Amino acid sequence: MIGYYAHSHGSGHCNCANLFSKVFGNSLTIFTDRRYDFDKENQVILLENEDTDGNEFDRNAFPEPRALHYAPVNLGKITRRNLSILENIVKKQISVLIIDVSVEVAMLARISSIPYAYVRLQGNRDDLPHLNAYEGASFLLAYYPKEMECRDTPTWIVDKTVYLGFLSRYTFNDTCSERPEEYGVKIRPVLLYLTGFGGSQVPNFSELYKKYDMYAIGPQRISNNAYNFENLGVVGNTRPYLEHADIIVAACGANTTAEILSIEKKFIAVPEKRQYGEQQRMAENLERNGWAVDLSQQEDLISAISTLSKLKHRLLPTVSKNELIAFKLKFEFLNYDVERFVSKGNHSHETLISSATMKRELQINEPISV
Question: Which GO molecular function entries does the Swiss-Prot or TrEMBL record give (predicted)?
Answer without folding.
Answer: hexosyltransferase activity
